[in-house]
Write a structure and sequence with these properties.
3-stranded antiparallel β-sheet; 6-stranded antiparallel β-sheet; 797 residues; 15 strands; alpha+beta
Length: 797
């Protein structure tokens, strides 16, 4: 192997492609990586230093840091025999880590795919042109529809086509989505869900908080398709960089602890002799083989790495006899003399190599050109690495983290806690002082002795003390109060001082990290206004925004790699069928589009949800607009669903204009309706008046007709009655006439009869007179003779 660059341990990159593909070249690259990361320097090996630093930060983040430093601080010349303390670390840092990680690990974005290939751009442009044309010719279309009854619009199937440029712009951003873009978004979301990316995301957010660096790896294989894996930053190696996003690194890799059966399964070309050699290789503390408690002889540390270099793509452009040109790919060593029949054309492209090597052992397990390199279709000469790294606080190769800022103050909090335990352990209760000589001078007079036991019992039971001011000799008794209470030093001042110190260092942690009380709600100020509390939470979110941005960057780059690798899945029947089956669970309509997914180029971006303060401002605007009647409830629901705050405000303004226009049109319609209603009412009133007059005339006519009919009927009835009366009168007259005739007849008869009777009477009387004269009878009183009997008859009577 020739090293033309004497300043680097890596092999020369300006060599033919055939040499780069050799196993010796890959072994030289792997040894160079080992030299940079595992070779001990002035400060030790780079890998072990990183591993130890990250391990220490993780222990502090878990509240499991070493307590030896605290013991060294509290001991006197290494002696801890007089200390009986609880050395368990106070878990202060884990609380702040959980606050940040739990607040960021939730999904606050939607994955959007934007088709940016020429075909998709043309389709989008044609659609926008068609809508623009419809806007420009809308009046003409309405006139044609009015005059001819024909709908010549090209958007007749759209429910609410845009009516102006502003609506068109918002429509293209909100409503227009090509089916291939929907298919791409579903494919990315399905891949993330299948790989449990939410769990992976929580892990790398935790790494960003604890270690200051996060890593995700995307890969592809025929069995599983596209995979997304979490990578422990403590096991990562990479080339030197000052870029927080690691975009200029040329190699990256990770160390995996693999068992021998798994090693044989992954690399079946290993012989039994090679496996025996690997198994006997003990390793050392530098390479971590069987180191620090790892006594499993069946595991091996394997370095998997990617190496980026360049390759020359050479083409021979041959001219045929018919004047056509044909391109033939040639090796990069192809460099003939200039010729009129052909030309040599070349370009340099980035190439990615995959390698695997056992650490500390000269066995190269794998070295090959990557089969499925992720190349952006906008720049096919560039290649993306499978590893995506981000360290927002990277400077000169050194990575700091949020936990690192808290470690010093966490140590002081732990020492303060130990001191507080020490003060509490040395506190003693209050006692009493007993003057035995003073007791000896006391005579109770009952014959019993006043001993210390009796005095203490009396004191503790009654609180009373018996003493003598004078001794038996008459002198002043200095022990006249034999029992006195002792107030020992209870250490409250020290305890208060230590508690203040504890709060001071806790506040220092909040100050250096920006995680104030409003962020975790541990001690909210009851007098603080709600707006001030929200402002404090917003300030705390700003202090950790770099961690959120780093996590979003890892997510975005992972989605970009997934987008590029989905095309690889479509080229193989097994992964293609699995992808189509998984996508069909979401949207069957995209199946046909998925088949041509590899022909498209997408730009992937994350549409973030606005934070609470931005949501509050938008919500206030919505509420004001609703109170003023500027928008409807349905419009408010649509606006709240838009994550892009600028677009949401634009839609709010558009909805207000549309609502104002609708209200104006509605008002005009109401005025027209009122005018029409008034005209109709007047017309109806006139018609009603005419109908009323007609009804009155008809009524009067009917009344007159009724009167006339009534008169006719009355006259007919009168005539009938008169006729009946006439008939009855005629009948009566006839009867009267008949009666008169009968009466006349009777009267005449009676007259005749009377005449006959008179005649008979007269004859009789004459006869009687004659007889009287003849016989000279007495005069006859004819008045008393019935029936005018003759005097003879009367005489006979």
């Amino acid at each position: 192997m020739i090293y033309t660059n004497t300043q680097s341990s890596f092999p020369d990159q300006v060599v033919p492609q055939e040499e780069k593909m050799s196993l010796d070249y890959g072994l030289a690259v792997a040894r160079a990586i080992e030299g940079e990361w595992w070779q001990s320097g002035v400060g030790g090996a780079r890998y072990s230093n990183n591993y130890n630093i990250f391990h220490r930060r993780r222990l502090y983040a878990r509240g499991e840091q070493s307590i030896q430093k605290y013991k060294d601080e509290m001991s006197v010349n290494g002696d801890l025999s007089y200390l009986n303390l609880d050395w368990t670390p106070v878990p202060v840092i884990p609380k702040f880590v959980d606050i940040v990680v739990n607040g960021m690990s939730e999904k606050i974005y939607d994955i959007k795919a934007y088709a940016q290939d020429p075909a998709s751009q043309k389709k989008r442009t044609d659609y926008a042109t068609m809508l623009h044309k419809n806007i420009a010719t809308r009046k003409f279309q309405e006139e044609v529809m009015l005059q001819l009854g024909m709908d010549i619009s090209e958007v007749k199937d759209m429910l609410n086509p845009p009516e102006n440029e502003e609506e068109l712009e918002i429509h293209l951003q909100l409503d227009y989505k090509q089916s291939i873009e929907i298919a791409e978004e579903e494919a990315i979301n399905n891949t993330l869900a299948r790989n449990k990316f939410e769990l992976c995301k929580r892990k790398f957010y935790k790494d960003l908080v604890e270690l200051g660096i996060g890593c995700v790896k995307t890969n592809w294989n025929k069995a599983n398709g596209v995979t997304v894996d979490y990578v422990d930053p403590a096991n990562i190696v990479y080339s030197y960089t000052d870029d927080p996003n690691f975009e200029d690194i040329y190699y990256v890799g990770e160390v995996k602890n693999i068992s021998l059966p798994e090693l044989k399964k992954e690399f079946p070309n290993l012989t039994t002799q090679e496996l025996e050699t690997i198994q006997k290789f003990p390793g050392n503390s530098t390479y971590r083989r069987n180191w620090k408690g790892n006594r499993d002889d069946n595991t091996v540390q394997v370095l998997y790495f990617e190496y980026k270099t360049f390759a020359e793509q050479v083409f021979k452009i041959k001219r045929t006899a018919s004047g056509l040109e044909k391109a033939l790919e040639k090796p990069d060593v192809f460099n003939p003399e200039p010729n009129d029949n052909f030309d040599r054309v070349s370009r340099s492209i980035e190439v990615l190599y995959h390698g695997a090597k056992i650490l500390g052992h000269p066995i190269m397990l794998d070295w090959r050109v990557a089969n499925n390199m992720t190349r952006p279709k906008s720049n096919l000469s560039k290649v993306n690495m499978n590893y995506v790294l981000c360290a927002p606080d990277l400077y000169k190769g050194r990575i700091t983290s949020l936990v690192e800022r808290m470690i010093t103050f966490a140590d002081m909090i732990q020492l303060t806690s130990l001191k507080l335990q020490q003060v509490l352990s040395r506190m003693v209760p209050d006692g009493v002082y007993l003057d035995v000589d003073g007791l000896a001078e006391v005579d109770l007079g009952s014959g019993t002795s006043y001993n210390p036991k009796e005095a203490l019992n009396m004191y503790f039971q009654t609180g009373s003390i018996v003493g003598r001011s004078m001794t038996q000799d008459g002198d002043m008794n200095p022990g006249k109060i034999p029992i006195q209470e002792l107030n020992s030093n209870n250490g409250m001042a020290k305890i208060q001082s230590l508690i203040q110190t504890y709060q001071y260092y806790l506040q220092m942690i909040r100050d250096v990290t920006g995680l104030n009380e409003a962020r975790d709600g541990s001690n909210p100020d009851k007098d603080a206004l709600l707006g001030l509390q929200k402002l404090a939470v917003a300030q705390s979110n700003v202090a950790t925004r770099h961690i959120l941005d780093a996590g979003l960057y890892l997510t975005l780059r992972a989605c970009e790699n997934i987008s590029l690798r989905i095309a690889d899945s479509l080229e193989f029947a097994l992964t293609n069928e699995a992808l189509i089956n998984s996508i069909s669970l979401y949207n069957v309509a995209t199946l046909e589009e998925i088949k041509d997914l590899h022909l498209y180029d997408f730009g992937i971006f994350l549409e973030l949800e606005p934070d609470e303060e931005e949501k509050q401002v938008l919500e206030q605007n919505i509420q004001i607009a609703m109170q003023q009647g500027g928008i409807n409830l349905e419009d408010a629901i649509d606006i709240r669903q838009i994550h892009n705050l600028k677009l949401a405000n634009q839609l709010l303004k558009l909805k207000r204009k549309q609502k104002a226009k609708q209200d104006q049109e509605q008002q005009e319609k109401m005025i027209q309706a009122q005018a029409q209603a008034s005209a109709e009412a007047a017309e109806k009133a006139a018609m009603a008046e005419v109908q009323k007059q007609e009804a009155l005339a008809q009524t009067e006519l009917q009344i007159e007709q009724g009167k006339s009919g009534f008169k006719m009927q009355q006259m007919e009835k009168e005539l009938a009655i008169k006729m009946q009366l006439a008939e009855q009168k005629f009948g009566y007259d006839m009867q009267l006439a008949q009666l008169d005739v009968e009466k006349s007849q009777v009267r005449e008869k009676m007259i005749e009869d009377r005449k006959d009777q008179r005649s008979k009477l007269e004859a009789t009387q004459q006869s009687q007179l004659i007889q009287q004269r003849e016989y000279d009878l007495t005069p006859t009183d004819f008045s008393d003779q019935p029936n005018g009997g003759s005097p003879m008859d009367q005489a006979m009577l």
